[in-house]
Amino acid sequence: DTAVSQTPKYLVTQMGNDKSIKCEQNLGHDTMYWYKQDSKKFLKIMFSYNNKELIINETVPNRFSPKSPDKAHLNLHINSLELGDSAVYFCASSQGAKDSPLHFGNGTRLTVT
Amino acid sequence: GENVEQHPSTLSVQEGDSAVIKCTYSDSASNYFPWYKQELGKRPQLIIDIRSNVGEKKDQRIAVTLNKTAKHFSLHITETQPEDSAVYFCAASITSGTYKYIFGTGTRLKVLA
Asked: Among A43, A48, A100, whose Cβ lies nearest the Cβ of B89?
């Protein structure tokens, strides 16, 4: 029954590897997001999709590639992982882009060694 | 550029006392201001929000005030309890180009029993 679910919860990998994080929402929302939370707890938006269309790309390195097969899913693929990519990645969704609260997934803690 | 400042970064209060967290935003077109609570190891969850046509909103022990002229908004928690201990984030909607939320840097609240 989780509204926004993301997998995996934990991801430990070595530098240079490629990994993916999956996100699904069952709220019927049309906008989905990826946020990165670093060790200082800062929450920074990475991407936003509205009805499968990319609407925000916050100067994230092109090693990060989001993919939205439909409006209920937004996956994040990361190539050539670097130490600085270690963080917690949160998927979120909202209804419409304006004026409505974000619903966050439980986060994926990525550790790059 | 777009910015939300949040103070203090840490706050310790005795159980039963009040806690106030303040935020300042830069985009005068911002019209939606949510507050999120993040417990350790968990996802941010919406606790209260306010829209720009309202100056104050209250929900039991929590209240939010908004001063659009000064571009300030604040979270007030009364009769604090140990379970209020968490990191609190303010956010403001930003409407330049595409619609998104900018988060404050977070306040770690500790309620001492």
From this structure: A43
Q: Is the dihedral of CA A97, A100, A106, A110 positive or negative?
A: positive
Q: Which residues contact A59 (CB under 8 A, 6 or more apart)?
A: none
Higher pLDDT, A95 or A25: A25
Instruction: Specify which residues B72 forms β-bridges with.
Output: B24, B67
Count of positions (residues) in chain A: 113
Output the six-digit token pair for B50: 């306010």
Q: Give yes or no for a cis peptide into A8 (omega within 30° of 0).
A: yes
Amino acid letter for position A92: A
| Interface list for chain A against chain B, based on CB atoms closer than 8 Å | 40-45, 48, 55-56, 90, 97-107
**B17-32 pLDDT tens trace:** 999 999 999 988 888 9
Which residue from A109, A104, A59 is spatially nearest to A87, judged by alpha carbons? A109
